[in-house]
TrEMBL record, chain B:
This is Ferredoxin. The keyword 4Fe-4S applies. The keyword Metal-binding applies. The lineage of its organism: Bacteria, Bacillati, Bacillota, Clostridia, Eubacteriales. Residues 3-82 form the 2Fe-2S ferredoxin-type domain. It holds the Pfam family Fer2_4. InterPro entries: 2Fe-2S_ferredoxin-like_sf, 2Fe-2S_ferredoxin-type, 4Fe4S_Fe-S-bd, 4Fe4S_Fe_S_CS, NADH_UbQ_OxRdtase_Gsu_4Fe4S-bd, PSI_iron-sulfur_center. Residues 143-175, 185-214 form the 4Fe-4S ferredoxin-type domain. It comes from the Bacteria. Keywords: 4Fe-4S, Iron, Iron-sulfur, Metal-binding, Repeat. One of its GO terms (molecular function) is oxidoreductase activity. Signal peptide: none annotated. Residues 82-121 form the 4Fe-4S His(Cys)3-ligated-type domain. Gene3D superfamilies: 3.10.20.740, 3.30.70.20. It comes from Desulfotomaculum copahuensis.
Length: 638, 223
């Protein structure tokens, strides 16, 4: 063993010892972890945290309270984990201030673990079911989310106690080429969306001679409905940082950036703190762990342009130029930031790096499919019972993700489609539910892995409207530089708006298809090249909905405002109930001679208030499409 | 980059400077490829107008000629069904947001859009697509040039000419369909400190920036 390698081993062993002490002392008294990632905070975790601290003081109970990140059970936020000696660690969900007080009073001051509020235990035990008994446990496999929600993201020692920075210590003892070779052998593909082999990117960068090189973590997550990267940065920032430092070591970069959007203030704060702590521990700066390698990181805040997630635009943005993509090649790995070789990897890609270096390429390849090894992280949103974050092996079917992890569609509604990959992705129908998910199967089906946003749609969602929504998004977020994207997406949006308003023409579907093909083939950057995907996939799988809008001026999902009308079923209306009348903001509902409620179609603004107001035992207000059906019904009832 | 390379374009062997971009190699040898935004004086191609697509043998997709360096033995075709279709779509898209008023336009008969339409037999009319007129106010404040943003195709020649010669008064602003050539804060040319050199009007290929009927101090900077 060389002198440097010995120094690294000794330095890392020292850190681990310190971390073990911190960890040990933590479990001497009860420990409460409150999930305060953005999902938790949005659900009221700040108030829960305050209540717990106040109640502990009031009850004079000695306990440690820590803020943790997100475990993925976002549907049940705020979450609190209680470690009390003599009990298994218990996870509580939907915690209110009242429940928080009771946990302190009954469980910590007393001995009643309040099992009525528990979601489950973190380990197998004799008292209550463990999380491992949930059906999703059999589907999920957590590599990069493993410690999310279970460790203190603001304390580097907690990360080190979970073998954090062991990958870096190992990478420092290897030749850079050996690190690149390991990543290449692992078959890791970039998790930012396109799935380019990470090892090949690194190899190009390593093999390009230059006076300076850079590594950048692309944390400019911006797809509607996607929050994987935010959660990882908020819950385990050191994992991302370690991946970035290893990347720097592998390609020989001495400076790096985490490009994170400014709209993620908590991620920015926790990353900046992680950088500071890593520097104090000798894991950043000159001569890291005594191994002779030096590296500095800056947390760079993006200014809110979606297109800056495109790597050449991101580079321009760091350089102080407008965030506008440029022609590739040259690719950043050969000529990137300030014209120097630059590796840009997504948050999730970098998060895989430490464990691959630690456990080896073969271990990584043992999960997933041959073409797409490892796991995939998805943000589950939309019409699902269990929204949140999940990590499953590549090759898992959509069915398993939607029904086993997500527990299916709420309110007994029917599944219609799942939108994968955000504005670059597509909508897959029920027939695709049995498809194993990986990079290649998804692009084959007309969607895209994208960065991992998964929005589930049910029977009430109009697929033309969904396509219009995403086109509206890309059209607004297009940088406007190239003709195809600036004007092509605008033309497509105009056509879709016409269709959703009942002004579509029979030739519009073919025009959409033709424009889509040219925009895909002819756009300058990835944003334009993928922008038509939501339209293409919805036409491919839901063409009948487009045709209903165009030919019959009818919205089958009763969603498009201008193609629907509200109608009160006389036979179901409870005459003396005036709930709908009171709810209508424009006084469009009146009594007819029999005191049955009728909607004045001229006045109605289609706000849906009467549907919500009509008591569930009557359900008298319905929607009809096309709107002319109302007149027909009224005639029938005369 | 001192040597020369020989390649084939449309069946013709041509020899050009190593490192030259395909577009200039073709144009210098009398082979036409439609283009709007390409600028010989710039080191890096803008590749924004998406008109100069060509086929290169061995490549799965058409590529833009302005961004592609020549290579020895490269076999290039400037016409194919795919290339013509892409250029045709890009052209019609540009036309859909270019206020067509050729009869009254100062650029009539010298307009780059007319040239492209003539060479490729494209219609000078928007047929398939919707017309996207932005209805922006015309800037008539400068004594030297008139700027009609409704005709602008965002090729960027004026912005670059202004940077080189006129002090960089013009620039791009806005995202997506809102992207436009304008001054800092959207001030009128007169208020933005335009020097009146007229380089922008000389550079504009489509009549969005036109010289008023006055003698320009140092115009004539050719594209």
């Amino acid at each position: 063993m060389s002198k440097e390698n010995q120094a690294v081993s000794a330095a890392y062993a020292g850190l681990q010892q310190k971390a073990a002490l911190v960890r040990q002392s933590r479990h001497e008294k009860p420990l409460l972890l409150v999930g305060t990632a953005t999902c938790g905070l949005a659900a009221g975790a700040a108030a829960v945290l305050k209540t717990i601290k106040e109640e502990l003081a009031r009850q004079k109970v000695e306990a440690t309270v820590l803020e943790a990140g997100c475990m993925g059970h976002c549907y049940a936020e705020p979450l609190v984990i209680v470690y009390k000696p003599g009990f298994p660690p218990i996870l509580y969900g939907y915690v209110t201030e009242g429940i928080a007080s009771r946990l302190v009073i009954d469980f910590l001051a007393g001995d009643d673990p309040c099992l009525e509020f528990a979601l489950g235990a973190l380990e197998e035990n004799e008292f209550l079911p463990a999380l491992s008994d949930f059906p999703r446990f059999g589907v999920e496999q957590k590599i990069i989310l493993e410690n999310c929600g279970l460790i203190d993201p603001e304390n580097i020692m907690d990360y080190i106690a979970h073998d954090g920075y062991a990958g870096l210590a190992r990478a420092l003892q290897l030749e850079p080429a050996a690190v690149v070779a390991e990543i290449k052998a692992s078959g890791l593909r970039g998790r930012g969306g396109a799935g380019f082999p990470t090892g090949r990117k690194w190899e190009t960068c390593l093999g390009t001679p230059a006076d300076e090189k850079y590594v950048i973590c692309n944390a400019d997550e911006g797809d509607p409905g996607a929050f994987m990267d935010r959660t990882i940065m908020e819950s385990n920032p050191h994992l991302v940082l370690e991946g970035l430092i290893i990347a720097a070591r592998a390609v020989g970069a001495d400076r790096g950036y985490v490009y994170v959007r400014a709209e993620y203030p908590l991620a920015v704060k926790r990353l900046a703190l992680a950088v500071e702590q890593a520097r104090q521990c000798g894991l950043l700066g000159e001569n890291i762990l005594g191994g002779g390698f030096g590296f500095e990181v800056e947390v760079f805040q993006g200014s809110g342009a979606f297109v800056c997630g495109e790597e050449t635009a991101l580079i321009a943005s760091i350089e102080g130029e407008p965030g506008i993509p440029r022609h590739r090649p040259p690719f950043p790995a050969a000529a990137g930031l300030y014209g120097r070789p630059t590796v840009i990897d997504n948050v999730k890609t970098l998060s895989f790096i430490p464990s691959i270096i630690n456990r080896g390429a073969d271990w990584f390849k043992s999960t997933g499919t041959p073409g797409s090894p490892g796991t995939a992280v998805f943000a589950l949103a939309g019409k699902l019972v269990n929204t949140g974050l999940t990590e499953v092996p590549m090759g898992t079917t959509l069915n398993q993700v939607v029904y086993d992890v997500g527990s299916g569609i709420p309110k007994g509604k029917k599944f219609k489609a799942v939108q994968i990959g955000g504005p670059s992705g597509g909508c897959l129908p029920e027939s695709a539910l049995d498809m194993p998910i990986d990079f290649d199967s998804l692009s084959g089906a007309g969607a895209m892995m994208g960065s991992g946003g998964m929005v589930v749609l049910d029977e009430d969602d109009c697929m033309v409207e969904i396509a219009r929504f995403f086109l509206d998004f890309t059209q607004k977020e297009s940088c406007g530089k190239c003709t195809m994207c600036r004007l092509g997406t605008r033309q497509m949006l105009d056509i879709l708006e016409d269709i959703t308003r009942g002004r579509g023409r029979p030739e519009d579907i073919d025009l959409l298809l033709s424009l889509a093909e040219d925009i895909k083939a002819g756009s300058l950057c990835g944003l334009g090249k993928t922008a038509p995907n939501p339209v293409l996939s919805t036409i491919r799988y839901f063409r009948d909905e487009y045709e209903a809008h165009i030919n019959e001026k009818r919205c089958p999902s009763l969603m498009c405002q201008e193609l629907i009308a509200f109608y009160i079923l006389p036979e179901k209306c409870e005459r003396s109930c005036d709930a709908c009348v009171g709810s209508c903001p424009v006084e469009a509902i009146y009594n007819n001679a029999d005191r049955i409620k009728v909607i004045d179609q001229q006045k109605c603004v289609k706000c849906n208030s009467c549907v919500d107001a009509c008591p569930p035992q009557y359900r008298a207000v319905i929607k009809l499409s096309p709107p002319e059906l109302v007149a027909e019904r009224e005639k029938e009832n005369k | 980059m001192s040597g020369e390379v020989t390649l084939t374009i449309d069946g013709r062997e041509i020899t050009v400077r190593e490192g030259e971009k395909l577009l200039w190699a073709a144009l210098d040898n009398g082979i036409y490829i439609p283009h709007l935004c390409a600028d010989r004086k710039e080191e890096k191609p803008d590749a924004a107008c998406r008109l100069c697509f060509v086929e290169i043998e061995g490549r799965p997709q058409p590529v833009t000629a302005c961004s592609e360096p020549v290579a020895a033995g490269m076999v290039v075709n400037t016409r194919s069904e795919r290339v013509d279709r892409l250029a045709g779509t890009a052209f019609e898209l540009l036309l859909s947001s270019h206020r067509l008023d050729c009869g009254k336009c100062a650029a009539n008969r010298s307009c780059a859009l007319q040239k492209i339409a003539r060479e490729r037999k494209f219609k000078l009319k928007v047929t398939r697509l919707r017309t996207l007129d932005r209805n922006l106010p015309v800037d008539d404040s400068s004594p030297v040039v008139t700027y009609d943003p409704n005709k602008c195709v965002l090729c960027g020649h004026c912005v670059r000419a202004c940077r080189r010669q006129g002090g960089g008064v013009l620039g791009f602003a806005g995202r997506g369909f809102e992207r436009r050539v304008t001054t800092f804060g959207g001030a009128s040319l007169a208020a933005a400190g335009c020097s009146g050199c007229g380089a922008c009007a000389a550079a504009c290929p489509v009549g969005a920036l036109t010289a008023k009927n006055v003698r320009l101090p140092n115009a004539g900077a050719k594209r």
